[in-house]
Design brief:
The chain has 338 residues and is of the alpha/beta class. It is 34% helix and 18% strand. It binds phosphoenolpyruvate and manganese (II) ion.
Length: 338
């Protein structure tokens, strides 16, 4: 931690700051510049609250040198984490595509879409059975009935299932049917839920919160890693900004930032990031070019009548065209899409 002092900090104030730092267990390196004095506080304390120093008289600012997350950090584990689920790898050279409807709506719907997914070469089928909707009057998902249907459709076409878990009470039920837990944006900092998922056997895809910083997102991943679940992947799905033309603002730069800071795979979700069908393919292509380890894309054969997120769902033929384009981009950057 680096403590920068005010230009006019008095000797007494500096003594007081040094005393506090020593009491907190830091060893001190003082550097007297022409303009400013800087104190280097040495000691690894990932959860130290820097405000305890920032409020002291004579302090101009305090900067952290090391990140507060450890197990999620690239310095803890240099090599990329590769998550293996049946014959699917997430985080390796091959791009992991996930596609399917926003919500599981019926047996006919999920079977139709599972066939589209499988025929495109995509290995992971998405579909929500428990839906976090902004309105209590909107469709809330089919619950266990939906889980049974997505499992049946996935088994028919040899696919892996990812579905959202909204609360602790759903964990055991969902684990009976799914292969990957999805934590939705609204639950990124539901610490009791993510702690429990850290003890679960299945991999987890952690979506970035609506206004989650990259550090907060990685700290949430850290919660699960600290509980023993090493199979955690992140998902950039757009953040809330002042911009209104898109549902969210797709933070494409989060992909290289996370890759630099962490070894965990990063999936991109251009469907929720943009909210409109015509913007999904361009942002999907951009995400692969930016180094995403996979994509999550919503598709629907009859989006006008979809029970949720129809306007952002790609039609099956649009999805197939996109997969062909992604294959070319993957090759251009030394990755595969099989
Ligand atoms: C979803 O994937 O259907 C979903 C609700 O996503 P998010 O949590 O990103 O809004
Ligand atoms: Mn959706």
């Amino acid at each position: 931690m680096v403590v920068v002092l005010e230009n006019n900090a008095t000797d007494e104030e500096i003594q007081n700051i040094v005393g506090h730092l020593e009491n907190f267990g830091f060893s001190i390196h003082k550097s007297q510049g022409v303009q400013r004095t800087i104190i280097g506080a040495i000691g690894v304390k990932p959860d130290f609250d820097t405000r305890k120093i920032r409020i002291l008289k004579g302090v101009y600012d305090v900067y952290r040198v090391t990140a507060p997350f450890k197990l999620a950090s690239r310095s803890f584990k240099e090599l990329d984490t590769v998550i293996k689920i049946k014959d699917v790898e997430i985080g390796g050279k091959n791009l992991a595509l996930m596609a399917g409807p926003c919500s599981i709506e019926s047996e006919e719907q999920i079977f139709k879409l599972a066939e589209v997914v499988a025929k495109s070469g995509t290995k992971i089928l998405r579909g929500g059975a428990f839906k976090p909707r902004s309105s209590p009057y909107s469709f809330q998902g089919m619950g266990e009935e939906g889980l049974k249907l997505i499992r049946k459709a996935a088994d028919e076409f040899g696919l892996v299932v990812i579905t959202e878990v909204m609360e602790i009470a759903q964990i055991d039920l969902i684990a009976k049917y799914a292969d990957i837990f999805q934590v939705g944006a609204r639950n990124m900092q539901n610490f009791s839920l993510i702690k429990e998922l850290g003890k679960a056997k299945l991999p987890v895809m952690l979506k970035r919160g609506l206004s989650g910083t990259i550090e907060e997102w990685l700290m949430s991943a850290e919660y699960m890693l600290a509980q023993g679940n090493k199979n955690v992947m992140l998902c950039e799905r757009g953040i809330r900004t002042f911009e209104k033309y898109t549902r969210n603002t797709f933070d494409l730069s989060a992909i290289p930032v996370v890759h630099k800071k962490s070894h965990l795979p990063v999936i991109a979700d251009p469907s929720h990031a943009t909210g409109l069908r015509d913007q999904v393919a361009p942002m999907a292509r951009a995400a692969v070019a930016a180094g995403a380890d996979g994509l999550m894309i919503e598709i629907h054969h009859d989006p006008e009548n979809a029970l949720s997120d129809g306007p952002q769902a790609l039609l099956p033929e649009q999805y197939n065209t996109l997969v062909g384009e992604l294959r070319l981009i993957a090759q251009a950057i030394g990755r595969d899409l099989v």
